[in-house]
Each structure stands twice: as structure tokens, then as C-alpha cells.
Amino acid sequence: MHGPPVAKGIIMSTYIGFAKFTDQGLRTVKDTTRRADAVRDAAGKYGVRVREILWVQGDTDVLTLFEADDDLAASAFTLAVASAGNVRFQTQRAFTREEMDAILQKL
Hints:
Blueprint: E1 6-7, E2 10-11, E3 13-21, H1 23-27, H2 32-42, E4 48-55, E5 62-68, H3 71-83, E6 87-94, H4 97-105
Antiparallel strand pairs: 1-2, 3-5, 3-6, 4-5
């Protein structure tokens, strides 16, 4: 994908979510893929589009690549996910090549 993603004429920002299972999430880990489907389905109500959900090894258990209308939408989405109690969520804003070029032009 080149350039910032666009949904309904709105340029969306890209985010990477790093999730770590809580004790509750580990006790019910067999439901993790079902929960991921529910997260993907609910994302739209927050102005979010989930591009990818990956289970990974290391300090992070689940990595989510998503796009949001703005920082408020991204925050509401990740708080909703974390409030279910299965993961602790940390989010970082990610920039496309074109966005990085625009940032560099400001230097």
C-alpha cells in the first residue's frame, strides 16, 4: 500500500498495537482466535480498520496492525480491547514512507 490509507475519503493513520496476555487471557488462551475475530468485527464502531492480527514470540504475545480515523479513535479502540481483561495493550503510531518523507521535509 502506498500513501496513507483512505477510508470514506478520510486519510487514516496507521498504528501498531502490542498486546501481552494477562493471567485471565492465558487461562482462556484457547479462545484467543475467536476473541481476535470479535475485535476485528467491533473495530469499525471506533473508526478503526484492523489490517492484521499476528501471534508472536517474545515480549509481545499479539501484534495488531490497524488504521484509525485519528488518535482518539485509536485510543478508544485499544482501551475497549484492554478493558475486556485478556490483554494489556501498548500502541505506537506508525508512519508510511510518504508520511516519513513529509516529516523529513519539515527538517
